[in-house]
Design a protein that fits this description.
By secondary structure, the protein is α+β, with helices and mostly antiparallel strands. 38% of the residues lie in helices and 20% in strands. The chain is built from 16 helices and 16 strands. Helix 13 links the parallel strand 12 and strand 13. It starts with a helix and ends with a helix. It binds histidyl-adenosine monophosphate (HAM). Histidyl-adenosine monophosphate (HAM) binds next to strand 6, strand 10, strand 11 and helix 12.
């Protein structure tokens, strides 16, 4: 009979060998595809004068409670928090924007020439319900411009995100923009929305009844079909904009038009984080990736907007106008048209190195080092001994040349170079191998 304790122990062991739910390993090509995307995005950002920043993965939880907003799902439901042995209350970053604003103050960047422009890349953590395109650890590429209220900065952020996605091969993308006004005109709008929804209390879902009390703007984010008709006829934020916010939005749309970036005004777009003012935008895919069904809502590949109020929320006094965006890199990589950008360090091997004896193994590093120094990418399988296995590996890789070092070659110092296309062979001294291949590869 099976020992139940033993089988529980075994299933605990099996569980131990699985990564945590919603988190995954990036191995080989998956890692390279991510790195390739990062290099492309960083290159575009660098050309526009952005500089890199890397903030800690752990921050004080309060930074996000205040910054991202205590009524946002990201904070109320999804943030991973922990108490350290010293009693500090920290959080795994659920997004990158409040940390960049924190760094702005910590390093006295108000005294730097404005605006200060950063790009960053790395993992973020949200205790979300994992499904296709939704992870608990996922990767964002972020752009932030701090220290300007000009609409051209909003346009630049949108332009860069759009360009990065386009140059990553994505074709079916749709830019949606909206303006939710500044703190004043948003109050007027919030009141209007509340009055409207109060008239329809009976027709909305329980979540929306709660949102009406805590954060009426999020009513427009509801995906429940029951609320759709109410949402569709709800008042629009652009109608409540004050003259300054209206001008800002008009200028942004003019920039987009002059850059030939197609857009759609989505009056239901309010975004899930509390710090936004004026411009909000998302770039969504219009094509379903992998096993997403036609019923699933369009996936947001990137989102962002202006956050003029965040600095004051965090610092208590100082105002810093800012705008930025985050690209969901995991979602970009799963798109069927993703261009599979390979990182610059990846070089397709041109040569396979075969060794056939202990003496030859001992010479291996000398040969590999000589080729590495002249930047000839090489593949090998030093743990193998047989000629046929190593030749088969070389065939599989499709390399144009193979170096063969047997007992005799290792002792007498010549190596054999075989041209894999015409099968011809030549004998070349080990210290001349690099020169020979440089000329012939
Ligand atoms: P966000 O819209 O919360 O914005 O996230 C940006 C992007 O991250 C989304 O458009 C989506 O592609 C991706 N994303 C979000 N959640 C997940 C998930 N669970 N799994 C996979 N991908 C996901 C922000 O985080 C803001 N900090 C962006 C920003 C920067 N706003 C101003 N500056």
């Amino acid at each position: 009979m099976k020992d139940p304790k033993k089988s529980t122990r075994q299933s605990n062991r099996d569980d131990l060998l699985q990564s945590p739910k919603g988190m995954r390993d990036l191995i080989g090509e998956d890692f390279h595809l991510m790195q390739g995307f990062f290099e492309k995005a960083a290159e575009v950002a660098l050309y526009y004068g952005f500089q890199p920043i890397e903030t800690p993965i752990l921050e004080k939880a309060e930074l996000f409670n205040r910054g991202s907003g205590e009524s946002s799902d990201v904070i109320t439901k999804e943030m991973y928090t922990l108490k350290t042995k010293g009693g500090d209350h920290l959080a795994l970053r659920p997004e990158g924007t409040p940390p960049v604003m924190r760094a702005y103050f910590e390093h006295g960047m108000q005294a730097w020439p404005q605006p200060v422009m950063f790009y960053s890349f790395g993992p973020v953590f949200r205790h979300d319900n994992p499904q296709k395109g939704r992870y608990r650890q996922f990767y964002q590429f972020n752009l932030e411009v701090l220290g300007t209220k000009k609409s051209i900065a909003d346009a630049m952020i949108i332009m860069l995100v759009y360009t990065i996605l386009k140059e990553s091969g994505l074709k079916d993308i749709n830019l949606q923009v909206n303006s939710i006004g500044d703190s004043e005109c948003r109050n007027t709008y919030r009141r209007e929305l509340t009055t409207y929804y109060k008239k329809h209390l009976k027709d909305i879902c329980p979540d929306c009844r709660e949102r009406l009390k805590t954060n009426p703007l999020r009513l427009l984010d509801c995906k429940n079909p029951l609320c759709q008709p109410i949402k569709d006829s709800a008042p629009e934020s652009v109608a409540s904009l004050c003259p300054a916010c209206k001008t800002h939005f008009k200028e942004l749309l003019e920039y987009l038009e002059s850059m030939n970036i197609p857009y759609e005004i989505n009056s239901n777009l309010v975004r899930g984080l509390d710090y936004y003012t004026r411009t909000v935008f998302e770039i969504v895919t219009t094509k379903k990736a992998g096993d997403l069904t036609d019923q699933s809502p369009a996936l947001a590949l990137a989102g962002g907007g202006r956050y003029d109020g965040l600095a004051k929320i965090l610092s208590g006094k100082k105002e810093v106008s800012a705008v930025g965006a985050g690209i969901g890199v995991d979602r970009v990589l799963m798109q069927p048209d993703y261009a599979k950008l390979t990182p610059r360090i990846i070089k397709k091997p041109k040569v396979f190195f075969i060794q056939l004896s202990q003496d030859a193994k001992q010479k291996s590093f000398e040969v590999i080092e000589a080729l590495r120094k002249v930047k000839i990418p090489l593949a090998q399988s030093l743990s193998k001994d047989s000629l046929s296995i190593q030749l088969a590996l070389a065939e599989k890789l499709g390399v144009p040349f193979v170096i063969i070092l047997g007992q005799k070659e290792a002792l007498e110092n010549p190596g054999i170079i075989r041209n894999m296309d015409n099968r011809s062979q030549e004998t070349v001294k080990i210290d001349k191998l690099a020169d020979y291949l440089k000329k012939n590869v």
